[in-house]
Design brief:
Helix content is 79%, strand content 3%. The chain is mostly helical. A two-stranded antiparallel sheet has the order 1-2. Strands 3-4 form a two-stranded antiparallel sheet. Strand 1 and strand 2 form a beta hairpin.
Length: 294
């Protein structure tokens, strides 16, 4: 019994493992270094597309695919019969849609017209549709918070957190529409579409952050699944902030250095997604061992 408790405690600390975060941040740093090297010291392009961004895109695709496969494996035993199973399924679909969307997005850069435009439309469909199952998972987590939280978020915290998230978003909307009004006469049709799509992404990310307010501002219970859900919440927040930052760069001119930062944010968030899923897989393996022992 003592040995079991020790293993469970060890797995609980693995969710926020310092070594895991060191690996994540090291890979993120290497992504920035290669971008600076291939942009300034030894610039290379592939079909007029910067090689450094090709490497960054591949890193995002690989990390999103790994996160998707981890969650897919973790979701299967739970099915849809439990609260956690429903949450896991929504997260798995979110990561699956994002992985396919990221893949189609990079394919569109290396495909001639009209296939390039078609792939671009398909990628945006997957990337936007991914939010629907994610919303479902977050709403379930919020409504079933008594299974996860030690104390509910106070109304004051909810108001304060919504203002913290909402005020920058409101400022961004005013700034973007002001710049849009100035640049509209000189914008092409594709640039106008790009503006609309970027705005849609930011709005959906802000909705994610606002729904997460009760969870971000509350304390989770002690327990393996509770620790995993807390790590999942932080991964979702990291992804939303990275996505907002990328789409906020739409109207910034000469941002070669900044271009890499959203890719770094995406990669970090997808790797953070793998941490709770790996812990859940360990928990399932431990449960099987107990059943076999009985």
């Amino acid at each position: 019994m003592f040995e079991t408790n020790v293993k469970v405690n060890a797995l609980s600390t693995e969710v926020f493992s310092g070594r895991f975060l060191i690996v994540v941040l090291t890979l993120a740093g290497l992504l920035v270094v290669q971008h600076l090297f291939l942009t300034y010291a030894f610039p290379l392009t592939v079909l007029n597309y910067p090689l450094s961004l090709v490497v960054a895109s591949l890193a995002v695709i690989i990390s999103s695919a790994i996160a998707f496969l981890y969650w897919l494996k973790a979701t299967v035993p739970y099915g849809l019969s439990s609260i956690f199973g429903k949450v896991f399924s929504g997260v798995t679909l979110f990561l699956g849609f994002k992985a396919f969307g990221n893949l189609f997005e990079i394919m569109s850069h290396f495909t001639e017209e009209p296939y390039s435009s078609a792939l671009d439309v398909i990628s945006h469909f997957f990337l936007i549709a991914a939010y629907l199952p994610l919303y479902s998972s977050i709403v379930i987590l919020v409504f079933e918070g008594h299974f996860l939280l030690r104390s509910r978020a106070t109304h004051g915290k909810i108001y304060a957190t919504i203002i913290v998230y909402g005020l920058p978003a409101l400022i961004w909307v005013y700034l973007v529409f002001f710049l849009f009004q100035i640049r509209l006469p000189t914008m092409s049709w594709s640039e106008i579409v790009g503006f609309v799509v970027s705005t849609v992404y930011v709005i959906m990310d802000v909705i994610v952050l606002i729904i997460l307010v009760p969870l971000v501002s509350s304390k989770f219970r002690h327990g393996l699944l509770q620790y995993s859900m807390e790590a999942l919440v932080y991964a979702i927040v990291t992804y939303s902030l990275a996505d907002i930052f990328r789409n906020a760069l739409f109207f910034i001119v000469g941002y070669d250095v900044l271009k890499i930062l959203p890719y770094v944010g995406y990669m970090i968030s997808y790797m953070l997604f793998t941490s709770p899923s790996r812990t859940i897989l360990h928990l399932e393996a431990k449960a099987k061992e107990v059943v076999r022992g009985v």
